[in-house]
Amino acid sequence: MRVQDELRLLPWTGPEGKPCYLSTDDHDGYVARLADHIEAMQLGAATKLREDALEVLEDRDLDDEDIALLAARLAGALGDVLRVANSRGHRLAKLESG
After folding, report:
1. Three-state DSSP class for residue 60
2. pLDDT tens-digit profile of 64-93?
3. Separation between Cα atoms, residue 90 and residue 33, nearest integer Å
4. 1-10, 29-38, 86-95 — which one is most confidently predicted on average?
5. Burial letters for 25-42: b for 16+ Cβ neighbours within 10 Å, e otherwise?
6. CA-based angle 40:83:39, to the nearest 5?
7. Cβ count within 10 A of residue 70
8. DSSP string, 19-85
9. Cβ(39)–Cβ(87) below 8 Å
10. What pTM was estimated for this model as a whole?
């Protein structure tokens, strides 16, 4: 079994931008609950950003700076959502196999 299959990918990175993992079977522990809360916040923020982006893109007078800022925010939110999906996918696979 690979290390990533045994550990939970956390919704934040370490100081050097490397992934952080949680090694525990306690799904109700402090760090696990904190990770659940942060994941929920990230997904909520991404949902709101998507709504805002659709609204902003209706404005045909956007300049390059506005578009670049929107793209950067969307890329950041997409990174968060992909990390949550990856983490949850590993946990689901572990539940299904175990």
Report:
1. coil
2. 998 999 999 999 999 999 999 999 988 887
3. 17
4. 29-38
5. eeeeeeebeebeeebeeb
6. 10
7. 16
8. EEEE--S-TTSHHHHHHHHHHHHHHHHHHHHHHHHHHHHT-TT--HHHHHHHHHHHHHHHHHHHHHH
9. yes
10. 0.81
